[in-house]
Amino acid sequence: MSRPNSAPLTAANGGGGRRLMPAAWVTARHALGARWAALAARERTALSTAAVLIGLFLMWSVAIQPAWRTLQTAPGRIDQQGAQLQGLQRLAAETAELRAIAPVSGAQSSAALQGATARLAGRATLQLQGDRATVTVVGLSGDELREWLAEVRSAARARATEVQLTRDAQGYSGTLVLSLGGTR
User: Residue 164's closest CA among 134, 142, 131, 132?
Assistant: First the structure.
């Protein structure tokens, strides 16, 4: 068998050609073997120890340390992803509940929205324009705003389509644009 552009192959161990190696490798291997035999026992021991230490360091760097680091960080990441999954499942359940509830008429939706806004005692003004409502709030606490939004969403089947709120010392102020009447 002839191979273009390569050195001829030679038996590596002289034992019948079990493994064939390029002639340059065989020459280099014999030269290294002769050099190794010429070293004193103490030097061979030192070089062998250094080679083992370098091998152990490489094995630690490439195989063990990355796996070890993954094992250490995995529980925290699993907990984080579990919490995220629970949040998504909660949102999916809420979405399924809202889809299962029958839509309300525009008049019922407007009445529920006006009732919820009236309970804010003058800190909110409501402007209805067809199937949209614009609510301007002034000085609502986070709990009041959250409760109001939950009531509006469940009773009026309204959902916020635009929200522009700022927070100051008195609470949240700004405008919310709501889509009314169970439109999805």
Answer: 134
**Distance in angstroms (rounded) separating the CA atoms of residues 184 and 177:** 15
Q: Tell me whether strands 9-11 and 20-22 are parallel, antiparallel or unpaired.
A: antiparallel
Q: Is the pTM here over 0.70, yes or no?
A: no
Neighbours of 84 (CB within 10 A): 10
pLDDT score at 20 = 78
Length of the chain: 184
Looking up tokens 């038996």 gives: 11
Name which of 147, 148, 139, 160 is nearest 118 in CA terms: 148
Look up tokens 């062998």; give the residue. 48
User: How many other C-beta atoms lie within 10 A of the C-beta of residue 35?
Assistant: 9
- Name the band, by pLDDT with cuts 50, 70 and 90, for residue 158: confident
